[in-house]
Design brief:
The protein is an alpha+beta fold. The chain contains 10 helices and 4 strands. The protein has a 4-stranded mixed sheet with strand order 1-2-3-4. It is rod-shaped.
Length: about 350
């Protein structure tokens, strides 16, 4: 990317403006009275300095745009009030290029309406003062062209900046998506490795016995299957303490279901440890036949909801009789924040 230092643009603008001031001072002997021209020079210098003064924002403030527009309207009136429109005034018409330069600066600082109003007012004043043919001879058309060029460049740079921001946002979103995919892939590999580490001994034992297992071994397989299911569906609900309490509950005959739907992904480590410690305590203290722990939706004040049901259940965790026979032994909503 090719960039132009901002200080270089400011220096060029200052040199052009200073050149107009020099021409104005050099031609003070041409007007009938030099004082209106002196006032015009002071106003132009003040407006130029204020417009070129380094600022954090590129867009010109409203008050400065209004001041520049007022100067561009007053400047021709002051200078031409002491000039003869039928004579060759030479450099005494410095104000034409000065107004064009000032309005070009305004256009570069994203004040396009101000710039166009200023040069159009200059053109109207010049046509009324010296006739339409003076628009070319005095350089008004050149001022209009400079503002038009500044307008096109400013619009092009604005569009380029907008597109750059859009592409940068798209790149950040793509990077975030790729990071999420990599994280999911890494998590999947980790869980697959963990599942293989947990299940491999039992699978080898089943293969060695040709699938003939006694009741104790079948119960052990069911516990192992439930543990693997927790690793898949429980995700962030699992800590070493929670795993231990879930294992103890299942050994007591409790059907435990852990469902993590992403509701606690945004919690920091301390808050998550507090929530999961409370979950482990609830599992340890419950006398229910079935326990269900589910994360709440994002934005909810509740982090995890724990439900304990009392009633006959089969090995798959479903009610063996009428669902109306089930009773709620535990209903616990663990808050996301302390004191909630």
């Amino acid at each position: 990317m090719i960039t132009i230092p901002r200080w270089l643009l400011l220096v060029l603008g200052a040199l052009f403006s200073a050149y107009h001031v020099v021409l104005g001072v050099y031609s003070l002997e041409v007007p009938d009275s030099p004082w209106p021209t002196v006032v015009a020079l002071v106003l132009y210098t003040a407006a130029t300095v204020a417009s070129l003064w380094p600022a954090r924002r590129v867009r010109m403030p409203d008050w400065l745009a209004a001041f520049d527009l007022a100067v561009s309207i007053v400047l021709p009136l002051l200078v031409t009030s002491q000039l003869d429109p039928s004579a060759d005034n030479g450099y005494a018409t410095w104000y034409v290029a000065a107004v064009g330069t000032l309005m070009t600066i305004a256009a570069a600082r994203r004040r396009l309406v101000t710039a166009w109003v200023g040069v159009i007012a200059l053109a109207v004043q010049t046509a009324l003062w010296a006739g339409p043919l003076a628009l070319g001879s005095l350089g008004v058309i050149g001022s209009l062209v400079w503002v038009a060029i500044a307008h096109m460049l400013t619009s092009a740079l604005t569009n380029a900046g907008r597109e750059t921001r859009r592409y940068a946002q798209a790149e950040r979103e793509a990077a975030a998506w790729q990071a999420a995919q990599d994280a999911h892939l890494f998590e999947g590999r980790m869980r697959l490795a963990h599942t293989n580490r947990v299940a491999a001994p039992m699978l080898r034992r089943i293969a060695d016995r040709d699938g003939r297992l006694d009741e104790r071994q079948r119960a052990e397989c069911r516990l192992l299957e439930a543990t693997i299911r927790d690793e898949i569906r429980g995700r962030m609900l699992l800590t070493d303490v929670v795993r231990a309490e879930v294992q103890r509950a299942r050994q007591r005959g409790v059907i435990v279901t852990l469902l993590d739907e992403g509701g606690i992904d945004d919690l920091d480590e301390a808050a998550r440890d507090r929530v999961l410690s409370r979950l482990a305590e609830a599992i340890a203290a419950s006398t229910a036949d079935r326990l269900i722990a589910r994360t709440a939706a994002e934005g909810s004040p509740t982090a995890v909801t724990v439900v304990g049901l009392v009633g006959a259940v089969d090995d798959e965790g479903a009610a063996s009789g009428d669902t109306e026979d089930l009773e709620v032994e535990l209903w616990l909503e663990i808050p996301r924040a302390l004191g909630a």
